[in-house]
Q: What sequence folds into this?
């Protein structure tokens, strides 16, 4: 009896063990080539479907951008998807979801009978150790480039780690490192292709310092996009990002794209993006979705078009001088940026008005009467003939001449101010007669009156 009971228990135990194994083991893949093929197409960007972001009803948010690309040694490590992405792929609870996901993300090239087996084994596709973070990052950068809207930008690429601490890969004109190239999509893509190797340390901090200097003489808004795994980085990197933000203030935003799932790297990249105050941090896996890539690029490069009633290029809610006549040069506040030169106002070494100068000043009078909320500052300038002391007196007389004329025309003196600068602020060379003419001038700066 005891022997029979022991035999029965053994049989039941074997059944339980067999059932448990069968319930938790995925069916074997019949053809191993399915997994090999999946590794070639899994987590790859579909360049054929990627198009520049649509600009309808939108305008440029930035004028300049830099991609800072990380080819340091840690980027040679095997690419490992983020935790969220991995969890998605090993969700065997719903086989229908697993199968559909596999079909949408790399399984479409397989024969119908193979799709189910591919779906159940999709997690194995992540174990392709020949696919490095470096390769994934390059594909991402190229897809990002394809998504950039077809507008005029100045764009650069900086790398760090290899072959030198920081290096320009694209953007500087040949034999003139003070001038940048206009952004061209195909040339930019070739520059990404030419980033061949990954090695060395991760000197992102000095690269951010170099980026700070890059845009010093360039006007307009700037976007900095950092593509990196964030490894071997820390406080000095996000402090450098803070310095970059302090330098350009509201004219710069910083965006970070994390490659892989290193938790320390994620913290660093998040902090760097937060330093920019107006950018964001994202994992590269998220950008495999073409719609999310488009949203990300749209966020960086475009903003909703705002009304500009007078067509001067300054939107209405920032325009201190609405109604500016078409064709007039304006400053960043939308006010007439006016410089009147000596050949119109004064003869050489004189400060009495000529007929052409009177006509020009009458335009200023009309503008001030039309816009009573504007103040005006007049500055007088000379060329460098004669001593500084003499030219200080001459530039002061010229400024006073302009001031007196406006007051005689009924402009409230409380709205007017003057300064005189001799030849200390030239706008052209004093070595030629033509340059000296440009330096003998009056400048008029309009500004909205304080409430």
A:
């Amino acid at each position: 009896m005891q022997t029979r009971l022991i035999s029965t228990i053994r049989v039941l135990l074997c059944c339980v063990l067999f059932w448990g194994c069968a319930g938790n083991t995925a069916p074997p893949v019949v053809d191993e080539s399915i997994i090999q093929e999946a590794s070639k197409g899994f987590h790859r960007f579909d360049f054929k479907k990627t198009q520049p972001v649509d600009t309808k009803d939108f305008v440029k948010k930035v004028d300049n951008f830099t991609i800072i690309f990380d080819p340091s040694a840690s980027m040679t490590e095997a690419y490992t998807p983020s935790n969220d992405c991995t969890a998605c792929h090993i969700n065997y609870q719903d086989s229908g979801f697993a199968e559909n996901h596999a079909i949408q993300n790399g399984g479409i090239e397989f024969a119908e009978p193979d799709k189910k087996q591919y779906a159940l084994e999709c997690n194995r596709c992540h174990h392709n150790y020949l696919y490095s973070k470096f390769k994934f990052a390059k594909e991402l950068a190229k897809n990002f480039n394809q998504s950039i809207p077809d507008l005029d930008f100045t764009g650069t690429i900086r790398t760090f780690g290899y072959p030198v601490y920081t290096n320009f890969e694209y953007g500087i004109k040949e034999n003139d490192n003070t001038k940048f190239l206009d952004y061209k999509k195909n040339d930019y893509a070739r520059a990404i292709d030419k980033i061949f190797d990954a090695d060395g340390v991760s000197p992102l901090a000095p690269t951010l310092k170099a980026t700070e200097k890059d845009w010093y003489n360039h006007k307009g808004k700037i976007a900095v996009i950092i593509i990196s795994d964030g490894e071997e980085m820390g406080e000095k990197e996000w402090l450098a990002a803070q310095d970059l933000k302090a330098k350009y203030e509201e004219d710069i935003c910083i965006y970070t794209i994390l490659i892989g799932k290193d938790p320390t790297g994620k913290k660093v990249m998040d902090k760097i993006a937060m330093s920019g105050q107006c950018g964001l941090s994202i994992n590269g896996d998220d950008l495999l979705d073409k719609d999310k890539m488009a949203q990300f690029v749209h966020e960086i490069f475009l903003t909703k078009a705002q009304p500009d009633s007078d067509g001067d290029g300054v939107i209405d809610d920032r325009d201190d001088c609405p109604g500016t006549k078409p064709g007039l040069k304006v400053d960043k506040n939308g006010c007439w940026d006016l410089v009147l030169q000596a050949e119109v106002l004064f003869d050489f070494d004189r400060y009495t008005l000529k007929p052409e100068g009177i006509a020009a000043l009458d335009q200023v009078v009309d503008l001030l009467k039309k816009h009573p909320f504007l103040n005006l500052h007049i500055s007088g300038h000379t060329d460098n003939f004669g001593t500084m002391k003499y030219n200080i007196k001459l530039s002061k007389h010229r400024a006073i001449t302009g001031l007196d004329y406006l007051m005689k025309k009924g402009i409230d003196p409380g709205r007017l101010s003057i300064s005189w600068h001799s030849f200390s602020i030239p706008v052209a060379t004093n070595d030629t007669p033509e340059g000296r003419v440009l330096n003998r001038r009056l400048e008029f700066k309009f500004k909205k009156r304080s409430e």
Remarks:
- Residues 2-24 form the longest helix (23 residues).
- Residues 336-448 form a domain with the 60s Ribosomal Protein L30; Chain: A; fold (CATH 3.30.1330.60).
